[in-house]
Design a protein that fits this description.
Elements lengths: L1 H10 L17 H6 L20 H22 L1
Helix pairs in contact: 1-3
């Protein structure tokens, strides 16, 4: 799921990376327990706080993430 999301965010012109600047591969207990342990596709998204500091920005990001999630779901089906 994450590979698809990274591709879609990139296509939309966002600066994206795979666990940058740090790796989430070590201490990712939530993903390990609830996704990986059950073979579920997952994706964690981190947004800079200054990009969601007001309602308009929050709504824009909510719509963007919903769009990306829908595209990822289609790619996984």
């Amino acid at each position: 799921a994450a590979r698809h999301a990274i591709r879609v965010f990139d296509e939309l012109g966002f600066n994206v990376g795979d666990n940058e600047p740090y790796s989430g591969r070590e201490l990712n207990a939530t993903m390990n327990r609830h996704a990986e342990a059950h073979g579920r596709a997952y994706c964690a998204i981190e947004i800079r706080q200054d990009l969601i500091s007001n309602r308009a920005d929050q709504a824009r990001w909510a719509a963007t993430i919903a769009d990306v999630a829908g595209r990822v779901a289609l790619a996984l089906s």
